[in-house]
Amino acid sequence: MEDLQALKQRFGIIGNDVHLNMALEKAVRVAPTDISVLVTGESGVGKENIPKIIHQLSHRKHAKYIAVNCGAIPEGTIDSELFGHEKGAFTGATQDRKGYFEVADGGTIFLDEVGELPLTTQVRLLRVLENGEFIKVGSSIVQKTDVRIVAATNVNMFQAIEKERFREDLYYRLSTVEIHLPALRERNQDIHLLFRKFASDFAQKYRMPAVRLEDDAVQVLLNYRFPGNIRQLKNLAEQISVIEESRNISASKLQLYLPDNKGNLPAIIGGSKKENDFSNERDIMYKILFDMRNDINDLKKLTLDLLNNENIEEVQQENHQLIEKIYGNKEPKSSNIEVLNIPQKVAVEKNYDFIETIEEDESLSLQDKEIEMIKRSLEKNNNKRKLAAKELGISERTLYRKIKQYDL
Ligand SMILES: Nc1ncnc2c1ncn2[C@@H]1O[C@H](COP(=O)(O)OP(=O)(O)OP(=O)(O)O)[C@@H](O)[C@H]1O
């Protein structure tokens, strides 16, 4: 059996928790077999690592590995996605299409959020699991495939069965072996370790020194419940790394980033607040941050123009609107600019890639805002996607897709 430490390193898995180790050992043991595996655990605990390990350590490793987010595919197209369709099967089916079960023949399919599969699709899946057979949408020809299925869920499958949303027979076929991943709050000794790893990763990514938690901040971190698990911890480390100027984080600083355990977010500006005022406070803060960033980019552009152009009057004229935007109507006199006393021969030809950043930042700000709103809503609703989707006015599937897209 592959050494556990080496396995963690290979798959980028951090942690020494005994239950995590047990789950990984189980994955290693079942990998060479064709047994169906159901991975369970709350959202954000790292379930996606398990099917990757199983596939890589199996004889299927040279064939395809396909991960499917069952919750993200619209109900109307999921059968076609999974099993393919024939030309003319439905409006828009202009040609034959292979489904994942055909494409992944000989390999592994990871069905994430399997509890979200529509009942009709569950029937088709059961057939694949029982005898490797499937029929394309709009066809009558039975095809064969040899696919290993690993599924995952963060919902209570027994409840889903009781509510007749999930077939009991399919559940038992899928969960020949169940691998459970513990919630982060049950892996107390790993929390700080994970934070340090993420802080160091983000330090590298953003080219800045890593943030460090002071002792009392570590205690705050360990006492927090982390409803969003490792995904939430990772986001937290990223936010702090980017937003905080000081690299030493105190308990009170950290507290500002942690929603309370009931899912409400703390007030960032000012003291007392009504529960519903929160969004305004955060919105104001984000607005200020966005404006500041835009101002900085504007100033960078202006500085670059000044460095490149000997004629200050000309720069002023060309950047008239920009100068007005930054300084309001009190435009600086050219003499004020001259105070900068910029040496004309500064080497400006290298490393001025921030012009690109300016454009990128502007287009990214909307996306950032969307990410922030989703994060906030998830935190506020204690990670309940249904409630968050409702609050955001989007479907649960769209929310799910965005969570995956932005790795939230
Ligand atoms: N042990 C770990 N070490 C380092 N990073 C981890 C670990 N486990 C998970 N992560 C990171 O946490 C994030 C969430 O993990 P993942 O998507 O696998 O969770 P999940 O349980 O599948 O969530 P969901 O049920 O919402 O799909 C990812 O960015 C992943 O890289």
UniProtKB/TrEMBL annotation:
InterPro entries: AAA+_ATPase (IPR003593), AAA_lid_NorR (IPR058031), Homeodomain-like_sf (IPR009057), HTH_Fis (IPR002197), P-loop_NTPase (IPR027417), Sigma_54_int (IPR002078), Sigma_54_int_dom_ATP-bd_1 (IPR025662), Sigma_54_int_dom_ATP-bd_2 (IPR025943)
GO molecular function: ATP binding; sequence-specific DNA binding
Record keyword GTP-binding present: no
Keyword Transcription regulation recorded: yes
A Gene Ontology biological process term: regulation of DNA-templated transcription
Residue stretches making up the Sigma-54 factor interaction domain: 13-242
Keywords noted in UniProt: ATP-binding, DNA-binding, Nucleotide-binding, Transcription, Transcription regulation
UniProt protein name: Sigma-54-dependent Fis family transcriptional regulator
Gene3D superfamilies: 1.10.8.60, Homeodomain-like, P-loop containing nucleotide triphosphate hydrolases
Top-level lineage group: Bacteria
Source organism per UniProt: Polaribacter gangjinensis
